[in-house]
Amino acid sequence: MGMKVKEVANLVGISIRTLHHYDEINLLTPDEITNSGYRLYSDKDLEKLQQILFFKELGFPLKKVKEIIDCPTFDRERALELQRKSLLEKRSRLDKMIKTIDKTMRHAKGEINMSNKEKFEGFDFHNNRYEQEARERWGDQAVDESKAKIANMPGDPEAIVTEIYSKLAALRHQSPQSAEAQSAIKEWFDCLNKNFGNYSLEAFKGLGQMYVDDERFTQNIDKMGEGLAQFMCDAMVHFADTTKNK
């Protein structure tokens, strides 16, 4: 007999709501549902859940996980091999960063001296997954143009973005359709087009949807204020729709 949702949640250490969400988006639908409406997870379902959680640990958004697992050519054994390799690489990076922290603490106490190079051992920004996904979505030319704009921006690009995000975070409890919210989201639209690339209204709307579809974006944006990603998404959709109709 299969396992009920609560049993699986307790076994794995995730919430019942998470399992319900996986079911709602057709990422993990249990093999059997009783006449009483209870979801029953088979061993095969648990294997699939394991795969989902491995991919999540490696930073894959749920949409991409679903795409990979649902592919007819998906090979579980091959996926496990690649996941193991990626996790070993991640562990190696973390070990290096822990050593850097330990050395930094000793340096701060005057026990050792650290060179500037040693202070940043373990950090690796050469393989940017966001950039790779952007290239796959919008093409090399768009990404290269955006990077060139950022390189030539006056001031600190991160500070400019943070300022706009802070303004939106302060407004996030209002309606995303309010005049203040729309004024701030227009500022974000103008900032993107001036500094990061050429965003059509549809691309801007799609970017907003990505803020809530991709858990990595949601988590990063919500650091500025809980619910900010959803607020920005709603505001961006409204801005795109109303501007397009003017």
UniProtKB/TrEMBL annotation:
Stretches assigned to the HTH merR-type domain: 1-71
SMART domains attached to this UniProt entry: HTH_MERR (SM00422)
InterPro entries linked to this entry: DNA-bd_dom_put_sf (IPR009061), MerR-type_HTH_dom (IPR000551), MerR_fam (IPR047057), TipA-like_antibiotic-bd (IPR036244), TipAS_dom (IPR012925)
Gene3D superfamilies according to UniProt: 1.10.1660.10, Antibiotic binding domain of TipA-like multidrug resistance regulators
Domain of life, source organism: Bacteria
GO MF terms, alphabetically ordered: DNA binding; DNA-binding transcription factor activity
Keywords carried by this UniProt record: Activator, DNA-binding, Transcription, Transcription regulation
Name by which UniProt lists this protein: Transcriptional regulator, MerR family
The species this protein was found in: Evansella cellulosilytica (strain ATCC 21833 / DSM 2522 / FERM P-1141 / JCM 9156 / N-4)
Native organism taxonomy: Bacteria, Bacillati, Bacillota, Bacilli, Bacillales
